[in-house]
Specification:
With 224 residues, the chain is an alpha/beta fold. The protein has a single domain, classed as Rossmann fold. The protein contains six helices and five strands; from the N terminus they run E-H-E-H-E-H-E-H-E-H-H. Helix 1 packs across helix 5 and helix 5 packs across helix 6. The mean pLDDT is 93.
Length: 224
């Protein structure tokens, strides 16, 4: 639904979900600023892809350095080098090792603050149905609570959107196909080998399944 103020902040990780969301939000007529975060994640190279996408789309892009708080977000394979990235299907219980403590609440709080400061009325993030079994901060209960907080945390009411909450990654690629998203400029892998995705971590497994569902070939390179 469009409102008079069509200015929005999109949280852009550099992955395929948030990149599709960026294209989608632009297509809906919003004036977009992209916001990315470096919290010391293992797959930090995703930020390079986020930057490249914003350059091509001519979108104002801000990267926030949160590496000083990395020590507060330990216990995840994505923030603790000593924890091995699990292999297998994305819905496997072992994938809980990739949960970063309270990540989305932290990132959304900053995105909402940024939106307030630039007088934007909307914040978008790419939580989707495939995340529900593993990530509590991608579930409807969490989103609904954050939407309420976004409306009452300041004099300026912010509308928080998670438009992919009811669909999976394959459906997102189908949307991206229509929008002509350049998926070669996205990164998903949690355990890369040099310049290639590993092909066996949960993130790679889900990505490959998504492209298969959409009926198109994944343009990135894999080890296998």
């Amino acid at each position: 639904m469009r409102t008079k103020n069509m200015s929005a902040v999109v949280i852009l990780s550099g992955g395929m979900d948030s990149t599709t969301l960026l294209y989608d939000t632009l297509n809906r007529g919003y004036k977009v600023r992209a916001l990315s975060f470096n919290y010391g994640q293992r797959h930090v190279r995703e930020l390079e892809y986020a930057k490249a996408t914003c350059t091509v789309l001519k979108i104002q892009h801000k990267v926030v350095d949160l590496t000083p708080i990395n020590s507060l977000l330990q216990g995840s394979a994505l923030t603790s080098p000593s924890i091995k990235v699990p292999r297998g299907h994305y819905t496997s219980p072992s994938m809980k090792a990739t949960v970063v403590p309270n990540r989305n609440m932290i990132l959304l709080s900053l995105a909402i603050g940024y939106a307030i400061s630039i007088k934007a009325n909307h914040v978008f993030y790419g939580a989707h149905a495939g995340d529900h079994s593993i990530y509590p901060d991608c579930r409807r209960e969490f989103v609904t609570a954050m939407q309420r907080i976004a409306r009452i945390c300041d004099y300026r009411k912010i509308r928080l959107h998670a438009p992919y909450l009811r669909i999976d990654k394959g459906d997102i690629v189908i949307i991206g196909k229509k929008l002509k998203v350049d998926y070669s400029s996205t990164w998903t892998c949690y355990d890369p080998k040099e310049d290639k995705a590993c092909g066996h971590c949960g993130a790679c497994t889900e990505r490959l399944e998504a492209f298969k569902k959409a009926g198109i070939k994944d343009p990135i390179k894999y080890v296998r």
